[in-house]
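Hi R.,

Here's the chain you asked about this morning:
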Amino acid sequence: MAAGMIEYSEVFHRQGGVLEQPEQVIAYCHRVIGLPALFVMETMSGELSVDHRRHALHVSELIQLANITRDVEKDLQSGVAYHPGLRPHLGSNGRGSAVPAVQQARRDLMVMATGRAGSFRHLLNRHQLPSLSPARSAAVLMMLFTGRHYRRMAVSVGIPGWRGPKSLPAMLMTSLPAAWSARWADRVVRRVEAALLAVI
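And here is the predicted structure, written out as tokens:
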């Protein structure tokens, strides 16, 4: 992760603070979350198949793009942008005349992210978790948090939202049964997945 951050700080510097192509954004997600996650997974479970590696990297994109779409205005103030349409607004607070560009960047990045939503379920199902598994509940909770984030971002840019638990207690109550029910976990994850894929 540290190596990825160093590499991309140089890319940002070279390109005037902006990642210019979607492929660069995807590669950034892989460097800072995807490859470290693969390292941990392969350390714990052995070498992953090509298919499982692809799903793991897609999940890293889904999660890192949540961070990116959340922090657009803060990043602009720091002189950084993950979308070429934001270049004229570097150094601003993302308000006023920058709002249309910020909203368009969020829409584009959300579409990029939510198209990866199906990989979360495939990755979860890859692991043969025991009948009673707090890890399965934690995975469902992560998916619920991710879904809530993108639901809020969708509404902020004029995309219709969808129903889902909003508060932490509600998300905890929804994810808790997944600890002992793989069927419940699959049902909840599929529901969030369908909502995210509908953004496209």
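One quick note: The chain is about 70% helix and 0% strand.

Cheers,
M.
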